[in-house]
Amino acid sequence: MRKSLILPLLEQRVRIIGQVRRDTALYLPPEPEPKRRGPKRKYGQRLDAAMLDTLPAQEMNLMLYGKLQLVRLRSAITVARFLKGVPVRAVWCEMRQDDNTWSRPRLILATETELSAQAVVEIYAERWGIEPLFHNLKRWWGVTNLWQQSKGALELWMQIRSTAYALTQLLALKLWESFPLMEIAPWRKGAMITAGLFGQWMRIQFIGLPVRHAYNPKSGNFVMPFPTQDQRLQC
Predict the structure, then answer these.
(1) What is each CA distance from 225 to 58, 85, 160, 171, 214, in whole angstroms?
(2) How far out from the chain centre does Cα 217 lie?
(3) 74 plus 165 within the same structural domain
(4) What is the dihedral of CA 167, 172, 174, 179, to 10 degrees?
(5) CA 66 → CA 28, 55, 125, 126, 127, distances in Å?
(6) Is 25 in the same domain as 55?
(7) Do both 149 and 117 map to the same domain?
(8) Which residues form the Transposase IS4-like domain (predicted)?
(9) Alpha-carbon span 158 to 174, nearest angstrom
(10) What is the DSSP string of 193-210?
(11) Using alpha carbons only, what angle is made at residue 15 by residues 11 and 20, rounded to the nearest 5 degrees?
(12) Which residue from 90, 78, 80 is spatially nearest to 7, judged by alpha carbons?
């Protein structure tokens, strides 16, 4: 969470959940004080490691990142200094590792202070299924090279690629039983069918397919064409 990005979003009343450094300066809300001259205090006592250990801990099993995990949560309503005194729900999340030890705590902040610690962690974990899409858009699908295009062309390109990505993900989950794995990757017998394998199969099926000739403008019908030899594959 970067201040330069978050503060303008907060001005637009956008609700934010994100991970920050564990040493981020967090303070308790200020104690009520008698009326006095000058501005009111924004920050109370700073939340340090000793105070963090005194917070009540909750252990529960949550479905996170595609599997059931035992987590330990601590939570408090705090004031974030880097957000200029915005109240946030701070959640420290530890996960049980394979060697039966707890992982280092992750600090997650949510501007919706009415959310529970469990809800904050579950919502934040949804990034596991979303961030690969943005990674692919930026690194592999050419979005970094589309700066010279118009806004409409850029949005259309992103929509097409994102839809295609989502469809391969869904098809890989739905058609895994009938997927011809032995024809695509026989060395991966018994492996999980991924969207990458499904995309590889689709490339094999559509190479040399004259898709532009499939639509008949006179009748308005789409007829699946027969595959032909791709000229690019000829020596």
Answers:
(1) 59, 62, 22, 22, 6
(2) 41
(3) no
(4) 130
(5) 34, 28, 9, 10, 11
(6) yes
(7) no
(8) 9-166
(9) 24
(10) P-HHHHHHHHHHHHTT--
(11) 100
(12) 80
Q: Please indicate, yes or no, whether residues 62 and 84 belong to a single structural domain of this protein.
A: yes
| Judgement on whether residues 158 and 188 belong to the same structural domain of the protein | no
Residue 46 is classified by DSSP as: B
What does the buried/exposed string (b/e) look like for 173-210 if buried means 16 or more CB atoms within 10 Å of the residue's CB? eeeeeebebeeeeeeeeeeebebebbbebeeeeeeeee
Question: For the segment 7-18, what is each residue's pLDDT rounded down to a tens digit?
Answer: 888 888 899 999
The 10s digit of each residue's pLDDT in 134-168 is 777 777 776 666 666 777 887 888 888 888 888 88
Q: Which candidate, 40, 103, 28, 21, places its Cα nearest to that of 69? A: 103
With beta carbons less than 8 A apart as the criterion, state whether 27 and 109 touch. no
Asked if residue 234 is part of any domain, the answer here is: no
For 166-214, write each residue's pLDDT tens digit: 888 888 777 767 777 777 777 767 667 777 777 777 777 777 777 777 7
The whole domain housing 52 covers 3-126
**Would you say the pTM of this structure is higher than 0.70?**
no
What is the pLDDT confidence band of residue 234, given thresholds at 50, 70 and 90? very low
Of 12, 20, 11, 10, the closest CA to residue 109 belongs to: 20
